């Protein structure tokens, strides 16, 4: 299969929704303003939307795999109502310090590992070099780099230690930087 698609890889917590810490219930899933419109724009520019999210709360026993699925379904429904379709949603339920025996190990899908992104590329014919990774932590960008993703952006508060150039996903997608990138490749 020839990799012809390009993706916008998205961390979930802190990028799509506010990260209030281990978001395991739908009442705590709150979309960050402007995100849905930004994703619609990215779709129109030809990007597949792929969510890649660490969910160690499952391994840690803070919420169950079924709880996670409920939140994911809620996310899909809420965004669909706003015109946003995700091509794929990938999560890592593992953590070496977990309390759920089957999930307590060092995997290669937990970011900064590239596993989730590599799986998505294989599943959806995505060319990583022409794709974009957006995260709010350096480990998100490291995962993108390890998977060969050509464009990587850290978002967050302007005062953050990492020096993120864009405050939010909407800020990035509305930027001239993004426009130029989308038109060029
Ligand atoms: Mg995050
Ligand atoms: Zn994993």
Automatic annotation (TrEMBL):
Binding site for Mg(2+): 11, 13, 136
Cofactor(s) named in the record: Zn(2+); Mg(2+)
InterPro entries cross-referenced by the UniProt entry: HAD-like_sf, HAD-SF_hydro_IIIA, HAD_sf, Heptose_bisP_phosphatase, Histidinol-phos
Active-site residues (renumbered): 11, 13
Sites where the protein binds Zn(2+): 92, 94, 107, 109
GO CC list: cytoplasm
Site (described: Contributes to substrate recognition): 110
Gene3D superfamilies in the cross-refs: HAD superfamily/HAD-like
Pfam families: Hydrolase_like (PF13242)
Keyword set, alphabetical order: Carbohydrate metabolism, Cytoplasm, Hydrolase, Magnesium, Metal-binding, Zinc
NCBIfam families: GmhB_yaeD, HAD-SF-IIIA, Histidinol-ppas
Family affiliation: Belongs to the gmhB family.
Protein name: D,D-heptose 1,7-bisphosphate phosphatase
UniProt organism field: Sphingomonas glacialis
Lineage, opening ranks: Bacteria, Pseudomonadati, Pseudomonadota, Alphaproteobacteria, Sphingomonadales
